[in-house]
C-alpha cells in the first residue's frame, strides 16, 4: 500500500515551509525540506536575528521548536489517521549557532506503537557538529486528519 503523505513530502523536497506548511510555527521557522525517507526527515533552517537570544545565538526555545516541528512532520509522514501531539521533549544543547548559520535537523522514529511514537532528533551545523539532540514521545490525540 502506498503512503500518500510520504509521497507528498518527497514531492516537496527543496521547498520552504513558508510556502507549504499547514503549521503557522512551521511557516515562521521556514525550514527547507532536504531529505525524506520512511521514519526520517531532514530539514535545513537558517538562523535569523529574530531567532536569537540576548547573547546573539540561536535561542534554546527556537531550537526546541525546530526539533519538535521536524519530529511532528515525521510522524505525519507515517500516514496515520490521527493527529499526534508531543507529550515530552528532552533536549541537550551542545553548541551555539549564530545568525546566518544553517542548522540541519534530522529526525528518526525509534518505535511507532499504536498510541505512542518514540523519536530521536538532532540538529547539526554545516560542519556536521551536533548543536542539539533530543528524545521525545508523541501520543495520538484521536483528532482525525
TrEMBL record:
Keywords: Hydrolase. Residues 56-130 form the Thioesterase domain. InterPro entries: ACOT13, HotDog_dom_sf, PAAI_dom, Thioestr_dom. One of its GO terms (molecular function) is fatty acyl-CoA hydrolase activity. It holds the Pfam family 4HBT. Transmembrane segments: none annotated. The keyword Transport does not apply. It comes from the Bacteria. Belongs to the thioesterase PaaI family. PANTHER family: ACYL-COENZYME A THIOESTERASE 13, THIOESTERASE SUPERFAMILY MEMBER-RELATED. This is Esterase. It comes from Emticicia aquatilis.
Amino acid at each position: 500500500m502506498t503512503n500518500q503523505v510520504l509521497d507528498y513530502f518527497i514531492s516537496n523536497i527543496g521547498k520552504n515551509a513558508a510556502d507549504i506548511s499547514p503549521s503557522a510555527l512551521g511557516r515562521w521557522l521556514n525550514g527547507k525540506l532536504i531529505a525524506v525517507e520512511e521514519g526520517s526527515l531532514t530539514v535545513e533552517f537558517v538562523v535569523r536575528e529574530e531567532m536569537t537570544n540576548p547573547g546573539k545565538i540561536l535561542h534554546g526555545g527556537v531550537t526546541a521548536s525546530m526539533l519538535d516541528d521536524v519530529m511532528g512532520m515525521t510522524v505525519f509522514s507515517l500516514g496515520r489517521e490521527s493527529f499526534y501531539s508531543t507529550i515530552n521533549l528532552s533536549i541537550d544543547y551542545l553548541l551555539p549557532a549564530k545568525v546566518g548559520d544553517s542548522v540541519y535537523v534530522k529526525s528518526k522514529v525509534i518505535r511507532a506503537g499504536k498510541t505512542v511514537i518514540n523519536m530521536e532528533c538532532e540538529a547539526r551545523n554545516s560542519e556536521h557538529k551536533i548543536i542539539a539532540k533530543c528524545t521525545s514521545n508523541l501520543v495520538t490525540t484521536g483528532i482525525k486528519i
